[in-house]
Amino acid sequence: MMMPGRVAAGVLGFILAASVDDAFANVEAFPVKPIRLIIASAPQGGTDTTGRIMATALSESLGQQVIPENRAGAGGQIAGGFVAKAPPDGYTLLISAGQSLVVHPHTYLKLPYDVARDFAPISLAGASDYALAVHPSLPVRTVKDLVALARARPGQILFSSSGNSSIPHLGGELFKLIAKVDMLHVPYKGGGPAAIAILSGEVSLMLGSLPTVIPHANTGKLRLIATASEKRSKALPNLPTVSETLPGIVVTAWYAMLAPAGTPKEIVGRLNAEIVKAVRSPKVSQILVNSGSEPVTTTPEELRAFLAAETAKWGQVVKAAGLKRE
């Protein structure tokens, strides 16, 4: 049955207005169901540790369960690709370290996402120093010792990382360049497996985030010889920095939370506010510090600018190391 033009237009206008009202209502009510937090790493690494801390804190503050879900593989690409294609409604979020966001654009010919196009930055959720961790059987206690041993055994010392083109991998390549040594890289699917490789004797050392290596160092299963931060770590103030012996080696870990592009600004803003509130709370802040992380947050705009700057920085390291796109 045909409707007169004015009536049809009025009905259409009513439907559109109702749809807009529903959309705003959904934003106002957010969240009305559990949220999935996709962790771009295997269990036990720094990203996983920080992600689980944030999932617990946000579950309490949002009044809805935030469910952490590890999706390891391809240096974070599997997790990133999954979230990039998820509905932009705030119910699927990503927490990732730097490799898949700022390094892979320089080392892979094709990625399942474009960071600038496919994600809505929310906030950093923490940052931590990296440390040079060695198996206790390796006869080194300082960076100077390690350089001397590596020069005496060219190509014989194996170092693990959380994956090809990961920041720990590039940190190792930077160490090789500046120290003028030859060591062999062995990639794993995350910082946790990379640390376990040292415990099992498969490799001799790694550049690992503090949340990854501190638990093993506390039990004596790993020995920490230096941090790779610009200044001495607040968590380990008695440990020297690598740059005190080899100037120019500064590598830090950070953990960014993002949503799929197109997520309403109101929802991104709500999530940002809750993350900032959680990280700044004495309880969560102390948990992060105890895990080896620094409580750090940003606005969405600051995170977008930070990702662009880090992408440019690590592009220079990839070029200097002579790594080719895969």
Can you lay out the helices and strands and say which pair or pack?
Layout: H1 5-29, E1 35-39, H2 46-62, E2 66-70, H3 77-84, E3 92-96, H4 98-107, H5 115-118, E4 119-134, H6 143-152, E5 158-161, H7 167-179, E6 184-187, H8 191-199, E7 205-209, H9 210-218, E8 223-227, E9 252-260, H10 265-280, H11 282-291, E10 293-294, H12 300-321
Parallel strand pairs: 1-2, 1-3, 5-6, 5-7
Antiparallel strand pairs: 3-9, 4-7, 4-8, 4-9, 4-10
Helix pairs in contact: 2-10, 2-11, 4-12, 7-12
CATH level-1 class of the largest domain: Alpha Beta
Shape: globular
Protein structure class: alpha/beta
Count every beta strand, where a strand is a DSSP E run of 2 or more residues.
Answer: 10
Can you tell me the CATH superfamily of the largest domain? Bordetella uptake gene, domain 1
Please report the number of helical segments.
Answer: 12
